[in-house]
Design a protein that fits this description.
mainly alpha, 3-stranded mixed sheet, 10 helices, 3 strands, 68% helix, globular
Length: 281
């Protein structure tokens, strides 16, 4: 007889939110600790990213195998499988959003970065936004949480709950009004639903990891910034002539802009149809 999945298991799965931030905080504290400050920041950024992934894996092993009695294969974390279609989509989504936004009137602002500042920015952007954060978030939300919710209820509810929790995770540390809150929740929820469905289609989190990585680097990266939300941390900045929240996305940036939301809705419909087509086979 299979395991009966109860509320206790759901509460254990919710520990993933704490693991997400606990692993990050611990990694940052170690990166900035006195024994390591003698090393260049770019080296410490890379080390921090490796620590973040390592701490998250250790925490997930405790939660999954120790408490929930499931393994990484059950959670679609192993084996690593990536399909070419999703690599293509990974680039199309953020480039389409960026291309649409650049059609609106604005101006480029170039901030002078020294070579060392450029290297530090690249190391953080690529290691944190581009690699460690997507891997950790996919293992937690589309790996462990999606699996537990599916076993307790069904795939539809699993997509809904894991996407809402994914959105909630992006609220922590943000100061925003109700308008920005709603935009951010909708945007993150749409992305979360797309990634959850891709995980179900491929039976692996790794195509979702690639989509997440490319999205973060292009949309959230600190090399090119559109909308002026992070101008002090980006080398190249495109600032709109209009300050409409429909373009800027408000506090959360262009991820919550109207073009991004529309593109995400379109791709959500596409992946939903692909999923249903796969289920018919």
């Amino acid at each position: 007889m299979g395991k009966e999945w109860g509320i206790k298991d759901i509460l254990i799965a919710l520990l993933g939110e704490g693991l997400l931030f606990g692993a990050l905080i611990l990694s940052v504290v170690i990166r900035d600790s006195k024994p390591l400050v003698i090393y260049p920041m770019e080296v410490r950024n890379i080390f921090m990213g490796i620590l973040y992934i390592s701490f998250a894996i250790c925490g997930l092993l405790v939660i999954c195998e120790g408490l929930l009695k499931i393994n990484f294969r059950d959670c679609r974390i192993l084996p690593i499988k990536i399909k070419t279609l999703w690599i293509v989509i990974a680039f199309v989504m953020p480039l389409l959003v960026s291309g649409i936004l650049l059609c609106f009137p604005g101006k480029w602002l170039n901030i002078e970065f020294s070579l060392s500042d450029t290297i530090i920015t690249l190391s953080f952007t690529l290691m944190f936004f581009g690699i460690s954060a997507p891997i950790v978030e996919e293992m937690i939300f589309r790996g462990m949480m999606l699996t537990v919710f599916e076993k307790k209820w069904n795939k539809g509810i699993a997509i809904l709950f894991s996407s809402l929790l994914f959105g909630a995770g992006h609220l922590i540390g943000q100061r925003m009004g109700i308008r920005d809150f709603l935009l951010m929740t909708l945007s993150a929820g749409l992305i979360g639903a797309i990634l959850a469905i891709v995980t179900f289609i491929t039976e692996s989190i790794w195509s979702s990891v690639i989509i997440h990585m490319v999205w973060n680097i292009i949309i959230m990266g600190q090399i090119v910034s559109i909308g002026g939300v992070r101008p002090l941390y980006s080398r190249y900045n495109y600032t709109f002539n209009s300050d409409s929240v429909l373009l800027t996305g408000g506090t959360f940036g262009i991820e919550s802009s109207l073009p991004a939301i529309v593109v995400n809705i379109i791709f959500l419909i596409i992946v939903w149809k692909l999923w249903k087509k796969e289920e018919i086979k």
